[in-house]
Amino acid sequence: MGQSLAPSRPSPLEGVLFLALVLALAGLNPWGRGHEEVWNAPREWGMALFALGALVGILLRGQRRAFPLNRGVLWPLLASAGFILAGAAATFLSPQPIWSWTGYPSVGDGLRFWALGVAFSWAVFLALEAGVLSPQGIARALLLALGLHALAIFPQVWDWRLDYTATQGQTYVRCFDAAQTDCYENPDATASGVHRAQMPIGLTSHRGHAAGVLALLGLFAAGLYLQRPRGSLLLLFTLAALALWFTQTRGGWLALWGPLVALAFFLAWRRSPAFLPALGLLAVGGFTYGLYWGAGQVGLYETRRFPELGLSLSQTDAYSSGRLELWRTAVQALPVRPLLGWGFDGYARAYPYAVDWNGADHHRLPVALRPPVRVVLGEDRLIYLEDSQGQRLLAPSPFAKAHNLLLDLLLSVGLLGGVAYLFWLGLGLAASSWPKLPWALMLAGYLAYGLTWYDSVHVTPLALLALGALFTGEEVWLRGSPWLS
After folding, report:
1. What is the mean pLDDT of residues 66-79?
2. Nearest 10 degrees: CA dihedral of 196, 202, 208, 211?
3. Which residues contact 435 (CB under 8 A, 6 or more apart)?
4. Nearest to residue 466, comparing CAs of 178, 108, 215?
5. pTM exceeding the 0.90 threshold for the entire prediction
6. Phi, psi of 388 (to 5 degrees)
């Protein structure tokens, strides 16, 4: 590797793009009300600002060259467009199109988010190809976001009520009259609506989202470290790994350590000099887990225990924290609307149609209804259960997500949208190379995370960002930059 060139001074526009990226990945509005205003809106505004800034930068630079379809961008572009078109059709045909447009409040991944996310992904690609944003700039933004997310975890380990909102430290109170004389307090939830069991959330709205963000950004730092081992990167990775253990989320643990273990085996098989740095990253995993375990032993924190390990095979659903039952219901719902699904967050809408209310699942039937019952769509676009005497109750739908990326994808946008999205992801992985290792690791971590979790406004932008970066030419990462030097 040759000497790196002296880095040029960032332009004001690159500074705007840097801040937009940090906002898209780690922003929150402490004075907002509800999940949408506190956590979702800042991420969407960050993505929108980045896309707009990239477009302005390209226009100001007078980029007159044609869109580089000759580099294999045509198929990814068509795949992403096909996904959005299928999502739009699924939303239009959905029993609840408004919900499909906005997404579930605590997740925020409706059609609005996905349209913005696809634009954000291609804005990353264009900004890098046109030189509006440098590889150094994007790396600094991601590493800063990683540091912010990791540092945000530890105070919440000490006091779960610290959610970094204007009401932090306060518990949830709901009043049922205007005079606020008939009120109910939930001492196990924050005033912003985050339950104690969902903590620590870092800069997200749920510990599962925090774990996904830490895992993907941690993989990015790990990829940079494998390309050029530096103590500062290792220190940041160590901080992120320790914070990830404290989220107590197995899906996040799998997302970080699964790709790194697989990569270490591959590097050992290839006898690559990068194997030793990879081994060092795995050693960091053991060291930080020891710190996490030790904190529990001395009473500083209640580490997660797995009582399900002592269960019999007849209680296998407990091994997955109830996910096997969610997946079973999701599979039963797939044939009902196979091509275009139910709109985004489709599991919540598909659930009433997949449950056997009059048979094996009769125990889930509301006690006020007498079987047999049927599922009906009301004039108000809500889904009801109706018994033989015409009495109706809202159909129970306890979860908005199946907690599996593939199942949630198929239920939301059907086979047409699902195949297009998976094709887009596959093309991104196929474009991987050693100079793009950090991005490939992020995308692999996203897929591992999706085995037991789902898309959200917190985690998915990282995967979309990685896709945009993976489709850029290798010269972007090699030309006069310290990315690999």
Report:
1. 75
2. -140
3. 227, 474, 477, 478, 483, 484
4. 215
5. yes
6. -70, -15
